[in-house]
Prior knowledge:
Helices cover 35% and strands 15% of the residues.
Amino acid sequence: MESIGKEFELKRQGKIARLTNRTFKFDARIKEGWFSAVYFLKTKEIIKQRRPKQQVTMQFFQKKDAILCGVDEAIALLHTFAENPQDLKIWALNDGDKIKPFETVLMVEGFYEDFGYLEGLIDGVLARRTSVATNVYNVVQAAGDKQVIFMGDRDDHFSQQAGDGYSAYIGGVAAQATHAMNEWWGNEGVGTMPHALIQLFDGDLVKACEAYLATYPKDNLVALVDYHNDVITDSLNVAQHFGDRLYGVRLDTAANMVDQYFLRNQHEFGQEDLRGTNVSLVRRLREHLDAAGYPKVKIIVSGGFDADKIRRFESQNAPVDSYGVGSSLLKVNIGFTGDCVRLNGKEQAKQGRRYSFNPRLSAVEFSTVLEDE
């Protein structure tokens, strides 16, 4: 894991080769235009018949401060499906670069009929990958030195996991829920138990944990303690039973539930919303674990976390060791635009657009994304 981290840090600095086109499992129908907007396909045909061999410069940008991702994939897409890809001239930033609004992140020069129909696909690749990477980066910044676990497997179509996992890694999170999320960068998925495991042992958390350890004795045991909506009682039970073998407990209290601890101690009701996983509940849990002699048991929280919620927890010094985050990381909130801004070396673009060369761009060699890794 450490070596992978170093490799990708070097990659972000532009010091090693980009991911190759063999990293990505492209659908062969891209070549047929199956995923391209029809007006791009019609334009390609018109230009082939009426105005061929016109060299255009196409540049891509977006409108926010962001963490760029999807560039390697976009380049591989061009080199795999463009006509005469060896003749294209491409300049690009690197996955992981911090970018500004309207900054050109990718620029392509070539005959329009060779690559123009890929414009929308490139926009989409950059939009999703950059959105996820930026969302993850913002969560990581909010969490400070606390671990963040990417738990986005249930929040989108499974076919997106490899790209989302890579984007999450570029954003700063290496702990991810599925093996598929790690496919492009070589790690393995992490995780312990869902509520279903406890249910299958008739709600007996201790027996579920015993079975987990018997089956995976080398794993850190993290008990999921909100099954009975009584996280303090269940955490103390597993701590007393497993002692030093218990690595941590995870709270995933539903947003419409108030934990039994507060229902037993209603004098603690106040201005704070005590539904779901909240700061007061985490604080009381930490106090009870410490008082019982288990200060080393870590507390992992999940359920509705995003950058804002993590910032609230951190601003109140919530005794959290790790945050599990899912759906908020997958929101596509950054859109990219591809514009043709030069024609045969002369500026030609719609009103409001202009050629904007970015000195941070680096030329991309055709062989860079074709060689075996």
